Every structure is written in C-alpha cells, then in structure tokens.
Amino acid sequence: MPQNIDRQQVQRLIKQGAQLVEVLPEKQYQLVHLPEAINIPLQSLDRKAAAKLQKNRPVIVYCYDYQ
After folding, report:
1. Are 14 and 60 in contact (CB under 8 A)?
2. Looking at the domain assignment, is residue 52 inside a domain?
3. What are the start-end ranges of the H helices in the chain?
C-alpha cells in the first residue's frame, strides 16, 4: 500500500533492506541517483517492470528532480 515517508523513514527502511526505485527517465538517472537505486522510468512502471523487484523486500519509489 503506497504511503508518503520522510527522510528518516527512508534511511531506516534502507538499513532494513528496502529497494530504491528511481522513476526519472534513464538520461536523468545516469546524471544523479541515490546509491544502489535501480531505474524504472515512470512511463515503464508496469507489472513486467515490477517483476524485477524482490517481493519480500519493501520498495521505495522516488523521483530525484534536482531542478
């Protein structure tokens, strides 16, 4: 179930093994992203793309728009 979380919750979840998914387009992902984040552009985020994720680990989806 989606929910908004703050920076402290992100850090805690990462320590517990959460998966990071950056949803910006590939070019922007290549410029800057959080360490160990994978890229699944928002336009590509569907069941097939989500199948790449481990079902037993939390998922943090974010968009690092530095502009």
Report:
1. yes
2. yes
3. 7-15, 26-31, 47-50
- Entry pTM: 0.82
Q: How far is CA 42 from CA 9, 22, 47, in A?
A: 22, 8, 12
Asked if residues 21 and 36 have their Cβ atoms less than 8 Å apart, the reply is no
pLDDT at 67: 55
35 bridge partner residues = none
What CATH code is carried by the domain that includes residue 14? 3.40.250.10
Joined tokens for residue 22: 């950056």
Count of domains forming the chain: 1
Distance between CA atoms of 23 and 12, rounded to whole angstroms? Answer: 21
